[in-house]
Specification:
The complex is a heterodimer.
Chain A: H1 2-10, H2 12-19, H3 23-50, H4 59-87, H5 89-94, H6 96-121, H7 123-127, H8 133-159
Helix pairs in contact in A: 2-4, 3-4, 3-8, 6-8
Chain B: H1 2-8, H2 11-18, H3 20-48, H4 58-84, H5 88-91, H6 95-120, H7 126-153
The chains are: A mainly alpha, B mainly alpha.
């Protein structure tokens, strides 16, 4: 594992992130913008899942209308996050907050995939999901997971460098 | 300035300044608050500009958006003030900080004023609503970019 991380750090991408004058600040900026955009929009779906806002609109419609926007934001966040990781792979790998962040991102991804398949398999039930406890719990879990991801992301910048 | 020197000598400033964990936790909570601010601001203006949720009445989006924005602003201002206090005399004169504050103030005043206007006139002209949304998006996206710049400045 360490060899792969060292190879990644030594790659052109790693060198640009670490050594270029603007590489690191620009990537951090893009990463935070992607996070604000994706989590900010996903938050609306989560609130609808919990039944806090947009109650008059079917959950499936809210999900379909917003999904392409937050998927775009997540793609930006993942690509910039990978480039940032490439620059400091070995020290990031040993950082506790980085490990928690990755673990929670995986959990958030599993939660999102579970919801996606629930919507696909039971569109009628998901459309009127106000009474479904599982959907509410998924919404609460999603908000909690992304709050932890943001917390850990900020903690990384205070403990890694 | 004397007020910044006084602020830096307060118990709040000394407590925050002496604890890396408290600073990091406040900074993380500040980013969560800022994400909520952007969530309310961006979704509202994407809807107004017709790029998002176009089939739905703007009032249906405006009401929750303004609430999310308000909660986010409260979290951001409280944590932001705590973070500002130990480094007030260093941060306050910085151009990037002043720009961030000016944009935050401008965007917030704009959003709350527009929100009241849209509530009063539910059948607002579509072109006017679109222009309102585009101006709002420019405000919030500029603020996000400057906020990222400020994080790097810190």
């Amino acid at each position: 594992m360490l060899e792969i991380l060292e190879w990644l750090e030594a790659s052109a991408l790693g060198a640009i992130t670490r050594e270029s004058l603007y590489g690191f600040p620009v990537l951090v900026g893009i990463h935070i913008l992607g996070l604000i955009f994706s989590v900010g929009i996903l938050f609306w779906v989560d609130l609808r899942m919990i039944g806090v806002c947009l109650k008059g609109y079917p959950l499936i419609d809210v999900y379909r209308a917003l999904s392409k926007w937050f998927v775009f934001g997540f793609s930006v966040m993942l690509l910039s996050g990978f480039a940032l990781f490439a620059g400091f792979a070995t020290s990031a790998y040993e950082n506790t907050f980085f490990r928690i962040k990755i673990l929670v991102i995986i959990l958030a991804g599993i939660n999102a995939i579970a919801f996606h398949f629930l919507v696909r398999r039971m569109p009628a039930e998901a459309a009127s999901a106000d009474s479904m406890l599982s959907v509410r719990l998924m919404g609460i879990a999603s908000i909690s997971f992304w709050a932890v991801v943001i917390l850990c992301g900020r903690m990384i910048s205070y403990t890694l460098f | 300035m004397e007020i910044f020197d006084w602020l830096e000598s307060t118990t709040l400033a000394r407590t925050v300044g002496e604890s890396l964990w408290l600073t990091a936790s406040l900074s993380a909570t500040h980013l969560i608050g800022f994400t909520l601010v952007m969530s309310g601001g961006i979704v509202w203006n994407l809807r107004a500009s017709g790029l998002l949720l176009g089939r739905w009445p703007s009032a249906a989006i405006a009401r929750p958006a303004i609430r999310i924005l308000g909660i986010g602003l409260t979290i951001s201002l409280i944590t932001g003030f705590a973070l500002f206090s130990p480094r007030a005399s260093y941060t306050a004169p910085a151009g990037v900080f002043q720009l961030k504050m000016a944009l935050l103030l401008g965007a917030s005043i704009y959003q709350f004023t527009v929100h009241r206007a849209v509530r009063r006139i539910p059948a607002l002209n579509a072109t006017l609503l679109r222009a309102i949304g585009v101006i709002g998006l420019l405000f919030w996206i500029s603020l996000a970019v400057v906020a990222c710049w400020f994080i790097l400045f810190e």
